[in-house]
Design a protein that fits this description.
Belongs to the CDC6/cdc18 family. The protein is of the alpha/beta class. The chain is built from 18 helices and 8 strands. Helix 5 runs parallel beside helix 6. It binds adenosine-5'-triphosphate.
């Protein structure tokens, strides 16, 4: 955040929100609808409109380059040489007659973990074809898998897709053991060598036992099957996670058979993100991207933790906004609009599901952060603003400790981060919260809750200012 100029400088970050955000999709929808209303021809039939849109020149030439799930060619991968080399070195064993090691790839989201794994596996597969080795990449994302049984079925089903055969057990109503046997059958009959890619593995917690999460059982069973010949193919397991501490939750039983090689993926800085975007600028027709677009999208994405997915997403949304508004080029203002929209949607997703009390804690803390120079909020000040808010809407009031715990829970949604601090003996200890998104975006989003909207933002702001002045 502090190693480049805040891209929003000069664009009003001080909290004096001027635009009325019309809907959950933010200002962009409003802009496009007001644009439409000025050009609408009421006599036009739907068919005419469709034909007209069809003839309109778009700005985006190749949408796949802006799709985060598309595996880009190797020459578009930038800034991950070390990781590419490590993963290639370890998995290349699959090209011979040996079992490659298991891997644990960890680092924040959007730092290229899945991309590098897919790119290396794709190349291994290409070489294996020329050597008559039947190699398969069996990939699952564990995010939506809630039990071990579901995960094993999913693996069997992906293995079957990769081998172009059918799964012969039903998805429901059979024991997990049968699903394992089916997975072994498919792999053994169709592959000499296979890499299991378990993306977002830490999400596979299961319902049974928090001490023995499903991901731990999955790792144990898979690596054991490799060792005791249930799986005759040479298999390697690549576990991918954002949670650097995931391996600490893997039970000792699983750990002793899994024993992975670790590969760390660190954050991208704004320069690396710029290079990533530049290698994809041919997603647009020549000359339609203004020169400020890429540096600004990269700077915005670098503000959180340098997420390439976010940078690519910003460039795509900016392009789509420009297209929808009938503009001839993608400009800086489209990126700013896109940033608002992307941030707001993410915050909305989280905020929609939390209780009013948590919203009040978050609102109070974000209100403080929006008034401080470094956009941080002390828990002690946040709590006083929280008390003001709960009094104002006559809601129950938590003790300070509960308020702090509720705020700490917000770290799981990556909305806030915190550090324990003390500003000298007179101020005592407090937590200092930092936001992953602009505090103003969080405030705007929370004001969509009618109870919170009962309190005037100006009133909150003057309470906050007074409290911040009182900080020692
Ligand atoms: N070094 C890079 N060069 C080019 N594109 C990249 C690079 N790193 C990431 N990307 C792109 O960013 C997007 C996200 O990358 P990827 O899915 O690999 O992230 P991840 O670390 O696996 O994140 P998550 O943990 O959220 O799944 C993809 O579209 C990918 O193509």
């Amino acid at each position: 955040m502090d190693d480049f100029e805040d891209p929003r400088d000069g664009a009003g970050t001080s909290g004096e929100d001027t635009t009325e955000q019309p809907s959950e999709f933010g200002a962009s929808e409003q802009a496009s609808s007001s644009n439409e209303s000025s050009t609408v021809d009421e006599s036009q039939s739907i068919e005419d409109m469709l034909l007209e849109f069809d003839q309109q020149e778009g700005l985006i030439r190749d949408r796949s380059l802006l799709d985060p799930n598309h595996i880009v060619e190797e020459d578009r991968i930038v800034g991950r040489d070390r990781q590419l080399q490590e993963v290639t070195k370890m998995l290349r064993v699959a090209l011979g007659d040996n079992r490659p090691p298991n891997l644990f790839l960890y680092g924040p989201s959007g730092t290229g973990k899945s991309l590098i794994t897919k790119a290396v596996c794709k190349n291994i597969s290409k070489i294996c074809e020329t050597r008559d080795i039947r190699f398969g990449t069996i990939e699952v994302n564990c995010q939506d898998l809630d039990t071990l049984g579901v995960a094993v079925y999913e693996l069997a089903s992906r293995a079957a897709d990769e081998a172009d055969v059918a799964v012969e057990v039903p998805k429901h109503g059979v024991a997990t053991k049968e699903k394992w046997d089916e997975l072994y059958r498919i792999v053994n009959e169709n592959f000499d060598s296979a890499v299991f890619v378990l993306d977002e593995l830490d999400m596979l917690v299961g319902r049974r036992d928090k001490q023995d999460p499903a991901f731990s059982r999955l790792l144990y069973q898979l690596s054991r099957a490799g060792a005791n010949n249930d799986l005759t193919a040479h298999i390697s397991v690549v576990a991918i996670s954002n949670d650097t501490k995931m391996m600490e939750s893997v039970g000792s039983r699983a750990l002793s058979s899994f024993t992975p090689e670790d590969v760390h993926f660190d954050d991208y800085d704004a320069n690396q993100l710029q290079s990533i975007l530049r290698r994809r600028q041919d997603a647009f027709y020549e000359g339609v991207l203004d020169e400020d677009v890429i540096p600004l999208a990269a700077a915005f994405a670098a503000q959180t933790h340098g997420d390439a997915r976010k940078a690519i997403d910003l460039m795509r949304v900016a392009g789509e906004l420009a297209e929808r508004e009938g503009d001839e080029s993608v400009r800086e203002e489209h990126v700013r609009e896109a940033q608002d929209k992307v941030e707001k949607n993410r915050v909305l997703e989280v905020v929609r599901g939390i209780s009013t009390q948590k919203k009040l804690c978050l609102y109070a803390t974000a209100a403080v952060a929006s008034e401080t120079d470094d956009e941080s909020a002390r828990s002690t000040t946040g709590y006083r603003v929280y008390q003001f808010l709960t009094d104002a809407i006559e809601a129950d009031q938590y003790h300070q400790e509960t308020y702090v715990n509720k705020m700490k829970e917000m770290t799981t949604y990556s909305l806030v981060d915190f550090e324990r601090r003390s500003h000298g003996p007179s101020s005592g200890m407090f937590l200092e919260f930092q936001f992953g998104e602009r505090p103003e975006t969080i405030l705007e989003t929370l004001r969509e809750d009618s109870r919170i909207d009962m309190v005037s933002p100006d009133e909150v702001s003057s309470v906050v200012k007074a409290q911040v002045r009182n900080e020692t």
